[in-house]
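step: validate -> pass
step: tokenize input -> pass
step: predict -> running
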Amino acid sequence: MDEEEREVLIQREMARLREADEAALCALNEDSIRRRTTWFEENRSRFAFLSNDPVRAAYALLLARFGITPQEAPIISHDERRIIFHSQNFCPTLEACKRLELDTRFVCKYLNEDATNRLIQLIDPRLRFSRNYAYLRPYVPFCEEMIYLEDETTKT
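step: predict -> pass
step: emit ->
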């Protein structure tokens, strides 16, 4: 993606986020859920081979959906039930928040965390996505994110 394409995405995101309150962000999240679900249904066959490892399948799904490489979201910790990775990829939401002086900890929580969670649950309903809001751009150089399998001991 070249700089001009990135700038178009940033401007589009700025238009969506300008004056957005919690309710508006939640409405945008609902739209994102619909778009991600449609995308998943159109691309489901690309992820079928990973079904024996739902955590890895969810990580591969997120990379594919957002068009990023493993180098842009390196895994820093993993086991059979959890992957923690550090997203460092281009993010129009991050860039829009910086320009509009919005707090990514608020925007990302309401704008896209649930949509991302719902996307990976299309692979396996036990899957969960979360962020460590103490480690979120632009406050640190990466967004620390996690995919894990929920079980009876991890339910909240």
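step: describe -> The domain at 3-149 is CATH 3.30.1380 (Muramoyl-pentapeptide Carboxypeptidase; domain 2).
step: cleanup -> pass
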